[in-house]
Every structure is written in structure tokens, then in C-alpha cells.
């Protein structure tokens, strides 16, 4: 394993936009004082026209909502108020109609005032009306309560447009909007101009309407031309639904004085009444256009007319609207059935290996189906629970196959753990997107590779109102955790039902909507999130014999007394039957002989696990133990390999990884499996020496279904050979039964293999290989920390802890785990400059210094590096050519650069460069890394041309040796993007940042600090380009990512995070969001003081920025 260094793990974006150079200007800079004065001189709008819904009275046990909508230049209250102050909707109508809730809705119809220009058109107002009503009615659980609209003048056109919109809102985020149209029983139009007389008379009338008031808006008036495209479209659309409402057309009887002093009939009867509409009635009101909606008392003739019409309508409204909702539900159900293609996804269960001939379970299948019926009206959840091996997965798959036509889409999700579940959601997102390419939210989630985004997007897709015919199957949810309620811990070390170390709550992963079907399979009887169905043993002997026959490939076994006896012994446990059949399919053993061995194994198992008799699943244990006995007899290496795999992670163990057991580190260190251990592991060394022998041994385990080949990893692009996985329950069995006594020799093998298999940074696709290793590193960490005192570390074995630490630090961003490994490598020793330091200790010390630097603890890193350098030079001499010494000097250069000590950094880099060029050559990988570091110093000191020259040299070398898409090459391109940005080549910079971001997301993932640094750089560029909204979104993504990686407390002293805070604060200041800017600047001041001290320029700069805000 080559020695690594970390210049790209430093601040990849150390320069901030306000410090680049004196001759660089920012297009999106803060407004100058003169600009601010100009802005201040603009007239400010005051809300003299209140908007939104106002509840005038709640009503007593209301059975109807009455909604009043004012007209052009109207007012939510004043339009309906008489000169004596009586607002009849509030003061009079509740006396005659106490069981109605009264709303008045205000909107921006004051469209001509110089102090305020409306930017909304009629359809915008209409959507807002529907949205406001939906929100109020939903909060009060009155979505199906009848509605009667009272609309004056222009308000009538808004109401008509609102009902048109509501009628069309059948899907998506606006699905609730349809409830307004369905619930509307009647409308009273008060002087609404539905149509004109001839020519452009309607438009002229509306111009006259404007003259009645303070203001008017030519843009709105253009909509009211009779021949305008919008009005014709509206009239045509409403005519198709107008017959659904009881409608009253009230019209004015008197002329109205205008602002110019003359009187006109603003909306004559011909325009106010749609005579062709059935179910409608014309109502004359003895008043002018303005006063026709203002009543002084209950004796007012106009009030009496309107209130009586309302009372009659209210009597009929509840029953009529109830029937409308029944029809709506029937139509919606029929529509869902007939138009399921709108949300259909082709049936497929790609991640499920089903049986060719499913046996029995007809009662359980019928029970599941009955429980999941009517899932379109309300969400149905079924939890199938039972003993491991009862066939929960198979019955779920069979249900999906039998009822695939009942659902528009079926998705199978692996719920083993949170990561697996998120990955399954990601696959589901890809399937949905393939079937429905227009699903833009899913497209972004799939392209980003963000698993959390995939979960959210799929759930949003499922939550749509019309998408109610889906089935989600969450398989193998075996580690539940609901707050403090967890599964009982096992009480002995041979319990196959032992849960894994970490559980999770599945409820946040379920769709929130109240439709659809959910099927969960679990070993836990405590998962009570839906209808629980226990899956017990097979009741009919014939069913057990059928499974045994299919699995063994033997026919007519019902006539075989041994088979019948074996089926009874296995007591209807499907996995035990399948496993026994798989064994018998590969040997000449008879059923009776198998049963004899099974019973012998069971007696032995009783002696070693006395508590096991109390468990129903003894057949499952005995089948696995029986298979193991036969494996021991047939192939001892296979049996030993099965035991060894208990110390690896249960997924993705592959040949090249195990092959490292036969290798040792190649730089002069001692061998780390000592002769005694090699004597005990000779079987493994022989096994991995020949891939054909290895395949033969592994195939035996696969034959017994104890291992499964990961065929899916055979896709093009797989790094090294495909792996083998073991079911989590089987893995627990190998750990607690096969390895009841901790085996020190076997436990060290995965630690050795994982550590030694880590590739060097200049290896092709090294990142992808390390991603395969990281899960095994986690298993090693668990062994090391849980069994620390019991582990016999070979002489010099601390090198493995260093390698695991590097894996955690660089590839897993698991910094606590990395520190634990480094400290174990040091064995608690403190570095003393006066004592000789071996190579292993020096590596551990330097890596620990790197870790502190990445975390942002520069002071601690400097102490560690300083002591290490003094110790190295004391015992090697200052003129030594030792590579470890120059790696340390390079690390010091990185630290100096972070501290702003660019002269010291340059001196360190130049010393290393001179050495590398003379000993390694000018094109060596390590030489080019230092070249890039020197370019970084030039960049940060403003020597942009020199920086570009050095980075381009490094880039040419990296592309030649590693390729353009290698992670290390992307680091260089990233730095060139920053240089190009500062030199004003914004287009080039943008292209490079996008290329790097895409590369990082595909390799290291969307949440790695490399990716986040590039997001930061792109945000910095967007800010320079003046795209402040996009810049803010990118800054926030980077900020949140750093907070996840380092913790809320950790980011307070992390330089990269502090730079993001600073830039985001700068953006807030530009936007005038001073309080938010101040909050972030204060965090920066605190952080820079802790990292640099009060005398540093970074600290002084942020102090000045804070002063400028005051």
C-alpha cells in the first residue's frame, strides 16, 4: 500500500470572493449608498386592501359555507357595508341563517393606483381563492361542507374562473382543489358582467366601471373585452360546468353615478343574466351597481330578496352536495380503474428470487387480500410476521404475482436496514422515471444519486390523490426500533433470532397519504403498524412434501416413508424443507439417512444450547447445523470458510479480498500472520492460491443455500470479481453458533485482508474498490472495539489499524472511528522527540495529525506535526532522504497553508519538490501532487498565472497516468475551476465545476466533503454571476453537508465550513438580510478566533464586516 498524502483534503476553496484581488469586481455586489437612496425613494405600498379569507361568523353547527367575493376595486369589508356601518354578511345574515359560516374574501383588485400595481391576473386570483378556501376548510375538517358563493361585479368572473380551475384539479399537488367545485351548491352573481351587448360593449362597460372608483388597471380590463381570447375561453369553459350549480343572476335596476359626474347603467340585465343557462334565475335589485350589495337593515328589500334565496338554497344544499360527493367518489374510482396507465409501472420483482411452484398458503393469501382491499379510499397496512424461515418473503412475492392486476404499480423494497431501504427507493425512482419520463422530481433524484432525495420523491409520487392503486412491499424489516421500544435482546449466544446491532423506525419511510397498500414482512411480532398476520407452519403434510419434492428434485416422495417422516420432523418450516431438499439434491443420501443425521445433530445441539428447546424454530437451527456437519465431511475448507465469514460483513465478500490472506506488506515490515497462525490457517492460504479451488469450495456453500452469489454485481464496470452474500440470520448463526468461542486467528484475518487490500491513490478506480471495503472495515471496527482485550495483535500489526483509520477518514468520513484506529496503532504512547520513532509509529502520528487538520483543529495538528518532524530529524538527520520525512514535511506545508502562512508552506513544498524531482522524477505521481500544492499557494496569494501553470502541469500528468475521470484528477480540475473564475473566465470555470461535481457525485457520492467543496465553489461562481438564488441554494447544501459530516459543534472550527458561512453571510448582506448575515458572521468570528487567534487577518476581516453591518 503506497504512502498517501492529503493536499486535496485541505480547504479546496480557501479564497473568498471579496478577497480575490483588488482589480476583481463582483457583478452582484451590495448596493452602493447612492443605490440604496434610490431604492428608498420608491413609494411603499401599504395594505389598505386586506387580502385572503376573513371569517365573519363561525355559525352555530354550520351546514354550509357562504363565501362573499368583492368586485373591481372592492374591499373585503367595505364592499358589503352600508353607510350606517352595517356589514350585512356579519350583522344581519346570521340572524336569519344561524347555521352558516360566513367568509369574506379579499384580493388585489385595486389595479390603477400609482402607488401599487397588481401583478396578478384573474386566473391567479382564482387559484388563490381556491387555495385559501381549501386550507381553511381542511383545517376545520369541513372539506365536504356545501358552499354558496355571493359574487359582486368582477368577483363573479373570479368565482367562475376558480370553479373552472377546481374542476380541472384532479391530480398532483393541487388535488385538494377539486373539493371546492364538488362542494359548491350555488352561486349568487351580483351585477357580474357575463356578456356584452355587441361589439366591444363589455370592454367599454368595464372602463366605465373603473370610473366609479379610485383606480383601474388597463391590463385587467383587457381581459374583460367580450371578444378577448381569455373571456371567450372562460365563457366556454364555465358553460360546461355551469349547469352543476343552482345559480341566481342579480342585476341592478338603477344607474350609477361615475367619478366624472354622469350616471350610467354599469352592468345592464343583458350582460348580468345568462338566459340560456338552465337551473338559473334572474333577480332584479332596486339599487345601483355599487349599492346593490349594501343593506342597512333586515327590512331592506334587497336584503330580504337575497337572504330568502339563500335560505331556500341552504335547505337543499346538504343533501345535494352529499350526493355530489358520492358521485365524485364513484367516478374517481372508475377513473382510477380505467385510467390506471397514468400511474402504471410495469410489474416486475427483479430483486426477488421466487419459487417456481409456490405451495399452499391459500388461507393466508386470502387474509392478506381481504385486509388490503379498499386501499383506494384509505391506506391499508398488513404486517406479516413470523419465525425466520417461515416463508414471509415468498408469500409476499406470491401475493404480488396473484394480484398484480389489482394494482397500477408494485414496488419491492429491501428493508433490512435504512441504507438498503433507501437504495430500494432509488431503484423504484428509476422504474417510475422509466415509465413516466415527465416526472421531473424523480428525474432530479435519480440523476443526483441522493438516496434521501429518492425516498422523498417516490413518496411524493405515491401521495398524489389519483395515484391510489399502488402496493409497497417492505421485505425483511427484522430490526425494528420504535423509540425506546426495541426487540428483546437474546439471552444466549446461540439464538438465531438475535437482532443486528442497530435498528431503525420504518414509519418515516412509509407514504403519508391515506390511500394505497403496504405489506411489511418481519421476524418481529412487535411491529404493530397495521393489520398483523402471523405466518405459522404449514398445516398440511402434503404441502411440506411438495416443497421437499420440488427442492430435492425427487418425484413421488409421498410413497417414501422416510420422506413422510422427515416432513413431519421438519414440522412445516419452509426454509428447513428447502434447505433439506437442497442438500438431498446434491448427494445420494436417502430421506431416512438425512433424518438420522438430523436427529443426531439435534441431540448434540441440545447439549450445547439448552435454551434452544423453548424456541419453535429448532428445525431451522437443526437444518443449518445438519448442513454444516455434511459440509465438514464433504469439504473441510468449505466449513472453515463458513466460520471465517462470521468475522466479515455479511454482504459482498469476494475472492481478491480473501486472497490478501496470502500476502504481506511489501515495504520491509514484518509478516503479520506469525508462523503459528499460518499453521492454523493453511487451509485458507491454499484456498485463495487458486481461483478454481476457491470457486469449488464456495459453490458447496451456495449449494446448501448458506451463501448466495451476487450475480447483480456482474454488470460492466464491477471492480474486481463479484462477491458472495450471506443472509443476516445465517450470519448471526455463524457468529453465535459456529463461533461460540471467539477465534483470535480467524478474527484477525478480515482485519489483515481489508487493511492490505486498500489500493494506493494512483490506482485505477481506487475509490470504487474502497467503497466495497468500507462495510468490512465497519465489521472489523466492531470486532476490535468489542473484543479489544481478547484480540491477539501480531507483532507489528498496528499497521492494520492505520490502514483502517485511513479508510474511515478518507472514504467513509467516519472521523471518530479513524481516531480510535490511530490511537490503537499508537497503543496509547505519547510521542517524545527525544526517543527513536519506528516507521509504524511515525505513520500513525502523521495520520492522526491529518485527522485533526481535516476536523479543523489546526493547533493540535501543528503540535503533532512539530513533534514528529523534530523526532524524525533527530534520528534521521535533517538531510535524510527518507520518504516518510518528506511526507511529513508535505503535511506541514498543508497545515501552514491552512493557517495562512504561505511563505512557510511554499518553503516546505519547494524542499519536497526538489527531493521528488531528483529521486522520483518530474512526472511521478507524488511529484505532481506537490506541483499542485505549489499552484495552490500561488493561487491563494493572487499569482493566478503562476497558479494556472503549475496546476496545468499537474493536470497533464494526472490525465496521462490516471485518466480524466479519476478522483485525483478531478481535484486538479477543481482547483483550475477556481483559478479560472478569478481570472474572469466564468464560462470555463462553470464547465469545469460541473464536470467535477458530476464526477464526484458518481464516485465519492453527493455528501462527501469533496463534493461539498465543489458545491461551495459552484455557489461562489453563481454569486459572481449574479445568480443569487441559485448561489444561496448551493451554499445551503454545502453548509448542511458539512454539518452532517462534522456535527454542529465541529463546523464551528472547521475552516471549510467557516468559509461557507462567510460566503453565505456575504450573500445575505447583498440581499439585505442583515440579521441572517450578522448571525453567520458572528459564527465566523468565533471560529476564526479559535483557529487563528485575534491577530490573524481572517479574524480581523470578519470583525470589520460585522462593524459595517451596524
Question: Topology, pairings included?
Answer:
Elements: H1 33-40, E1 52-57, E2 64-69, H2 88-91, H3 93-96, E3 100-106, H4 122-139, E4 147-152, H5 154-168, H6 178-183, E5 184-190, H7 201-210, H8 218-223, H9 229-239, E6 246-252, E7 256-257, E8 263-264, H10 269-272, E9 280-285, H11 301-338, H12 362-372, E10 380-385, H13 392-402, E11 409-414, H14 418-435, H15 440-448, H16 451-463, E12 470-475, E13 481-482, E14 485-486, E15 517-522, E16 531-534, H17 541-552, H18 561-570, H19 574-584, H20 591-608, H21 618-634, H22 636-644, H23 655-659, H24 675-680, H25 682-687, H26 691-703, E17 708-709, E18 724-725, H27 728-738, H28 744-757, H29 766-786, H30 798-812, H31 815-826, H32 839-855, H33 858-876, H34 883-898, H35 902-919, H36 925-940, H37 944-961, H38 967-982, H39 986-1003, H40 1009-1025, H41 1028-1050, H42 1055-1070, H43 1074-1091, H44 1097-1109
Parallel strand pairs: 2-3, 2-4, 4-5, 5-6, 6-9, 10-15, 10-16, 11-12, 12-15
Antiparallel strand pairs: 1-3, 7-8, 13-14, 17-18
Helix pairs in contact: 4-5, 14-15, 14-16, 15-16, 17-18, 17-19, 18-20, 19-21, 20-21, 21-22, 22-26, 28-29, 28-30, 29-30, 30-31, 30-32, 31-32, 32-33, 32-34, 33-34, 34-35, 35-36, 36-37, 37-38, 38-39, 38-40, 39-40, 40-41, 40-42, 41-42, 42-43, 43-44
Keywords: TPR repeat
TPR repeats: 886-919
Region (Disordered): 23-42
Keywords for this entry:
44 helices; five-stranded parallel β-sheet; AAA_16; single chain; disordered N terminus; NB-ARC domain-containing protein; flat; TPR_rpt
Overview of the molecule:
The chain has 1110 residues and is α/β, with parallel strands linked by helices. It contains 44 helices and 18 strands. The strands form 5 sheets. The chain has a 7-stranded mixed β-sheet, sandwiched between helices. A hairpin with a 2-residue loop joins strand 13 and strand 14 (485-486). Helix 30 (798-812) runs parallel beside helix 32, helix 34 (883-898) runs antiparallel to helix 35 (902-919) and helix 43 (1074-1091) runs antiparallel to helix 44. It is flat. Keywords: TPR repeat. InterPro entries: AAA_16, AB_hydrolase_fold, DUF676_lipase-like, NLR-like, P-loop_NTPase, TPR-like_helical_dom_sf, TPR_rpt. Residues 23-42 are annotated as: Disordered.
Amino acid at each position: 500500500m503506497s504512502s498517501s498524502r492529503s493536499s486535496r483534503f485541505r480547504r479546496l476553496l480557501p479564497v473568498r470572493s471579496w478577497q480575490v484581488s483588488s482589480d476583481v469586481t463582483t457583478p452582484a455586489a451590495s448596493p452602493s449608498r447612492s443605490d440604496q437612496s434610490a431604492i428608498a425613494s420608491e413609494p411603499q405600498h401599504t395594505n389598505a386592501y386586506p387580502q385572503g379569507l376573513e371569517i365573519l361568523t363561525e355559525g352555530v353547527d354550520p351546514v354550509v359555507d357562504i363565501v362573499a367575493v368583492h368586485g373591481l376595486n372592492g374591499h373585503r369589508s367595505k364592499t358589503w357595508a352600508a353607510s350606517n356601518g352595517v356589514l350585512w354578511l356579519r350583522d344581519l345574515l346570521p340572524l336569519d341563517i344561524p347555521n352558516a359560516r360566513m367568509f369574506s374574501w379579499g384580493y388585489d383588485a385595486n389595479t390603477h393606483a400609482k402607488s401599487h400595481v397588481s401583478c396578478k391576473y384573474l386566473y391567479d386570483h382564482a387559484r388563490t381563492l381556491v387555495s385559501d378556501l381549501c386550507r381553511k376548510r381542511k383545517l376545520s375538517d369541513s372539506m365536504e361542507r356545501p358552499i354558496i358563493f355571493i359574487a359582486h361585479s368582477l368577483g363573479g368572473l373570479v368565482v367562475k374562473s376558480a370553479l373552472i380551475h377546481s374542476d380541472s384539479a384532479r391530480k398532483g399537488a393541487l388535488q385538494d382543489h377539486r373539493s371546492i367545485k364538488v362542494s359548491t351548491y350555488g352561486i349568487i352573481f351580483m351585477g357580474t358582467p357575463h356578456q356584452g351587448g355587441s361589439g366591444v360593449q363589455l370592454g367599454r362597460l368595464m372602463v366605465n366601471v373603473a370610473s366609479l372608483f379610485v383606480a383601474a388597471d388597463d391590463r385587467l380590463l383587457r381581459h374583460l373585452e367580450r371578444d378577448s381570447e381569455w373571456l371567450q375561453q372562460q365563457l366556454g369553459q364555465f358553460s360546461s360546468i355551469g349547469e352543476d350549480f343552482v345559480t341566481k343572476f342579480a342585476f341592478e335596476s338603477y344607474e350609477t353615478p361615475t367619478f366624472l359626474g354622469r350616471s350610467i347603467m354599469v352592468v345592464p340585465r343583458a350582460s348580468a343574466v345568462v338566459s340560456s343557462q338552465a337551473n338559473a334565475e334572474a333577480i332584479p335589485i332596486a339599487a345601483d351597481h355599487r349599492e346593490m350589495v349594501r343593506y342597512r337593515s333586515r327590512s331592506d328589500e334587497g336584503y330580504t330578496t337575497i337572504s330568502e334565496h339563500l335560505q331556500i338554497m341552504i335547505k337543499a344544499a346538504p343533501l345535494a352536495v352529499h350526493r355530489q360527493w358520492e358521485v365524485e367518489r364513484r367516478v374517481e374510482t372508475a377513473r382510477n380503474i380505467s385510467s390506471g396507465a397514468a400511474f402504471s409501472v410495469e410489474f416486475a420483482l427483479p430483486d426477488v428470487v421466487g419459487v417456481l411452484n409456490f405451495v399452499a398458503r391459500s388461507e393466508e393469501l386470502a387474509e392478506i387480500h381481504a385486509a388490503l382491499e379498499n386501499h383506494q379510499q384509505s391506506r391499508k397496512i398488513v404486517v406479516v410476521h413470523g419465525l425466520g424461515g417461515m416463508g414471509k418473503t415468498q408469500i409476499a412475492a406470491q401475493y404480488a404475482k396473484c394480484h398484480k392486476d389489482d394494482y397500477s404499480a408494485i414496488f419491492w423494497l429491501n428493508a433490512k436496514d435504512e441504507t438498503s431501504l433507501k437504495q430500494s427507493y432509488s431503484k423504484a425512482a428509476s422504474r417510475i422515471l422509466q415509465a413516466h419520463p415527465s416526472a421531473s422530481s424523480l428525474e432530479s433524484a435519480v440523476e443526483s444519486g441522493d438516496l434521501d432525495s429518492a425516498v422523498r420523491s417516490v413518496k411524493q409520487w405515491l401521495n398524489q390523490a389519483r395515484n391510489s392503486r399502488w402496493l409497497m412491499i417492505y421485505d425483511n424489516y427484522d430490526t425494528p426500533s420504535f423509540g425506546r421500544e426495541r426487540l428483546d435482546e437474546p439471552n444466549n449466544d446461540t439464538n438465531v433470532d438475535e437482532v443486528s446491532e442497530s435498528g431503525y423506525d420504518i414509519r418515516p419511510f412509509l407514504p403519508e397519504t391515506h390511500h394505497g397498500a403496504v405489506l411489511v414482512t418481519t421476524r418481529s411480532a412487535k411491529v404493530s403498524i397495521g393489520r398483523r398476520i402471523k405466518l405459522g407452519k404449514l398445516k398440511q403434510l402434503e404441502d411440506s412434501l411438495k416443497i421437499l419434492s420440488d427442492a430435492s428434485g425427487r418425484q413421488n416422495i409421498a410413497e417414501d416413508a422416510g420422506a413422510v417422516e422427515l416432513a413431519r420432523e421438519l414440522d412445516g418450516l419452509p426454509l428447513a424443507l428447502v434447505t433439506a431438499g437442497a442438500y438431498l439434491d446434491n448427494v445420494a443420501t436417502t430421506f431416512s439417512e438425512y433424518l438420522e443425521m438430523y436427529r443426531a445433530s439435534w441431540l448434540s445441539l441440545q447439549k450445547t444450547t439448552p435454551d434452544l428447546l423453548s424456541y419453535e424454530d429448532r428445525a431451522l437451527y437443526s437444518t443449518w447445523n445438519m448442513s454444516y456437519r455434511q459440509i465438514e465431511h464433504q469439504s473441510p475448507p468449505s466449513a472453515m470458510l463458513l466460520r471465517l465469514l462470521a468475522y466479515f460483513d455479511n454482504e459482498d465478500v469476494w475472492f481478491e479480498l480473501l486472497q490478501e490472506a496470502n500476502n504481506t506488506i511489501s515495504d520491509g515490515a514484518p509478516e503479520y500472520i506469525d508462523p503459528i497462525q499460518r499453521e492454523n490457517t493453511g487451509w485458507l492460504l491454499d484456498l485463495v492460491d487458486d481461483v478454481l479451488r476457491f470457486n469449488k469450495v464456495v459453490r458447496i456453500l451456495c449449494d446448501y443455500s448458506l451463501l448466495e452469489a451476487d450475480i447483480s454485481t456482474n454488470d460492466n464496470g464491477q471492480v474486481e470479481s463479484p462477491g458472495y452474500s450471506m443472509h443476516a440470520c445465517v450470519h448471526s448463526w455463524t457468529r453465535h453458533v459456529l463461533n461460540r468461542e471467539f477465534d483470535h486467528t480467524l478474527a484477525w484475518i478480515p482485519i489483515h485482508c481489508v487493511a492490505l487490500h486498500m489500493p494506493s491513490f494512483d490506482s485505477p478506480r481506487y475509490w470504487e474498490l474502497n467503497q466495497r471495503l468500507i462495510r468490512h472495515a465497519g465489521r472489523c471496527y466492531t470486532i476490535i472495539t468489542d473484543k479489544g482485550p481478547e484480540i491477539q495483535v501480531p507483532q507489528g500489526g498496528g499497521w492494520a489499524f492505520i490502514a483502517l483509520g485511513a479508510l474511515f477518514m478518507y472514504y467513509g468520513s467516519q472521523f471518530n472511528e479513524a481516531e480510535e484506529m490511530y490511537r490503537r496503532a499508537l497503543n496509547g504512547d505519547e510521542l517524545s522527540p527525544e526517543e527513536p520513532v519506528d516507521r509504524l509509529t511515525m505513520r500513525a502520528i502523521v495520520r492522526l495529525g491529518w485527522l485533526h487538520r481535516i476536523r479543523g483543529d489546526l493547533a493540535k495538528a501543528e503540535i503533532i506535526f512539530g513533534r514528529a518532524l523534530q523526532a524524525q530529524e533527530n534520528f534521521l538527520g535533517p538531510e535524510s532522504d527518507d520518504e516518510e520525512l518528506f511526507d511529513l514535511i508535505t503535511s506541514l506545508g498543508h497545515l501552514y497553508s491552512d493557517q495562512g502562512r504561505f511563505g512557510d508552506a511554499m518553503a516546505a513544498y519547494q524542499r519536497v519538490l526538489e527531493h521528488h524531482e531528483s529521486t522520483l522524477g518530474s512526472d511521478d505521481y507524488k511529484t505532481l501532487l506537490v506541483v499542485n500544492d505549489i499552484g495552490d499557494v500561488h493561487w491563494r496569494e493572487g499569482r493566478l498565472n503562476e497558479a494556472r501553470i503549475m496546476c496545468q502541469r499537474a493536470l497533464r500528468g494526472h490525465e496521462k497516468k490516471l485518466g480524466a475521470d479519476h478522483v485525483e484528477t478531478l481535484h486538479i480540475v477543481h482547483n483550475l475551476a477556481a483559478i479560472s473564475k478569478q481570472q474572469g473566465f466564468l464560462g470555463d470555470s462553470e464547465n469545469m465545476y460541473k464536470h467535477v461535481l458530476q464526477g464526484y457525485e458518481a464516485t465519492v457520492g453527493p455528501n462527501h466533503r469533496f463534493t461539498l467543496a465543489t458545491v461551495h465553489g459552484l455557489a461562489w461562481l453563481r454569486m459572481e454571476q449574479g445568480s443569487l438564488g441559485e448561489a444561496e441554494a448551493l451554499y445551503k447544501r454545502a453548509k448542511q453537508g458539512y454539518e452532517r459530516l462534522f456535527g454542529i459543534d465541529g463546523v464551528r472550527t472547521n475552516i471549510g465550513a467557516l468559509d461557507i458561512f462567510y460566503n453565505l453571510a456575504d450573500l445575505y448582506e447583498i440581499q439585505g438580510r442583515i440579521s441572517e448575515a450578522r448571525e453567520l458572521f458572528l459564527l465566523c468570528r468565533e471560529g476564526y478566533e479559535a483557529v487563528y487567534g485575534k491577530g490573524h487577518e481572517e479574524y480581523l476581516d470578519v470583525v470589520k464586516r460585522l462593524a459595517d453591518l451596524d
